[in-house]
Fold:
Amino acid sequence: MRQLYLAATGQNRGKTTAALGLFDGFQRAALKTAFMKPVGQRTVIDHGQPADEDAVLMHETFDLVADYGAMSPVHIPRGFTKKYIAG
Structure:
């Protein structure tokens, strides 16, 4: 099993766009594919479950059957890190 982890130096760098293209290419090549955003900061409720909006995008775009608990397991509210550091 090979895995690919996309990362960048900051937000809004194109990770989601790259993930969409790569995922589509992998599926077209008949490779076994899955998506996970381990920590999300933009949580929405979809089908009664919390998930990062990128997980929802991938789930709906590719008609994935994976549960949001596996695709988007950790949700951190925006500003959490700054508040934590500030005490």
The CA atoms of residues 3 and 61 lie 21 Å apart. The radius of gyration is 14 Å. Helices lie at 15-28, 53-61, 68-71, 80-86. DSSP finds four helices and four strands in the chain.
